[in-house]
Amino acid sequence: MTSQTALQRRIDGKRDDLIALTQDLVRIPTLNPPGENYREICEFLRERLAPRGFTCDLIRAHGTPGDSEKYPRWNIVARHEGARAGDCVHFNSHTDVVEVGAGWTVDPFGGELKDGKIFGRGTCDMKGGLAASIIAVEAFIEEHPDFAGSIEISGTADEETGGYGGVAYLAEQGHYKNVQHVIIPEPLQKDRICLGHRGVWWAEIETHGEIAHGSMPFLGDCAVRHMGAVMHEMEESLFPALALKKTAMPVVPVGARSSTMNINSLHGGQTEPEPDFTGLPSACVPDHAKMIIDRRYLMEESKAEVESEVRAVLEKVASERENFRYDLNEIWSVEPTMAPKDSAVVTSVAKAIGDILGKEAEYVVSPGTYDQKHIDRIGKLKNCIAYGPGLLELAHKPDEYVGVDDMLDSAKVMALVLVDLLLPKDLQSTAR
């Protein structure tokens, strides 16, 4: 029996453990917003990993967006030291999940196992990836306890809302300065290596008017109509121009190889009443309207160009409409990022995919950002990718699921990466 076969068989033998671990993680409803049960899932991970030789630190991201006494932003970093000095390989998974939404046919937090799939909110994005990385690391340590270097597993907060209470906070505290390789098990499919992501620019547009009685709108100035003119101009000029922009980045799906913009929200006039309010709205001309835009941009574009295109729309409307006034404010932004294809973690994962799946790895770029942005931008570590089980198109959807076989295969790939990066060269040929 070769060491590789022993490692693969050890992981296969953990199938039931992998299923149960994934189900347990899904049954902790870490909804974000607002950020529920972060402490509970961190304590669950500590109870799992500490008895297996990991030093576990629970870290609260004080003062970050959303952090409060009611919804504290808790993270866990678990570290296992090897027998001697060497590199540190870090597996990072976010623990938060998005809202459930409508259309489910199963309990979104039940973790139901059916036809080789585990269903529930967060199974694909990305508690299945977290579970697979834990199984991979545990199997590797059991098989090769004398490895060099160290292995870390982190469960971090708030990736779904920017990651500022999770990976960004850890990076700001200097955590990644002692890490050499990072794998983020986001659901990009088990035969794909995600090198990075497009850029993002979120902004708020506000149009202004003048309040008046709704029966005499000519005495006021309707901010909602002004916003309607903005939307019309976007449809006429901005959206067609974005569709024509193309990138050399291998973004998936193919539609995301063009620049895109989503209107995230739109509101004008009176504040929405409380759900239990049974009265009627007052008759007023709205004096303000707000739109949130979510602009995703390409490596070939700059943030300045992205902002100028939106401002050009607003200035064109201003030149054509009487009394048109607006504010444009950035909410947050991240530049596009890509790990070099020849970086150590990329070549190692590619080799492992070939060994386990018998095929060449596909190199892709994510349409949306994930926590690689913080490891790159703040942590100054380019040797970072996303690799994990699950289908990207299932993320945030009803009846989200992850395949058990996909998790097992991904765990085997991750374990072979540890063989490649943490075992002495003279042992790797017999360990693969």
Automatic annotation (TrEMBL):
GO molecular function: hydrolase activity; metal ion binding
Key words, A-Z: Cobalt, Hydrolase, Metal-binding, Zinc
Keyword flag Transmembrane: no
Pfam families associated with the record: M20_dimer, Peptidase_M20
Ranges of residues in domain Peptidase M20 dimerisation: 196-320
Residues making up the signal peptide according to the UniProt record: none
Cofactors, names only: Co(2+); Zn(2+)
UniProt entry tagged with the keyword Hydrolase: yes
Domain of life, per lineage: Bacteria
Residue ranges of coiled coil: none
NCBIfam families: DapE-ArgE, PRK13013.1
Entry's family note: Belongs to the peptidase M20A family.
UniProt-recorded name of the protein: Succinyl-diaminopimelate desuccinylase
Classification of source organism: Bacteria, Pseudomonadati, Pseudomonadota, Alphaproteobacteria, Rhodobacterales
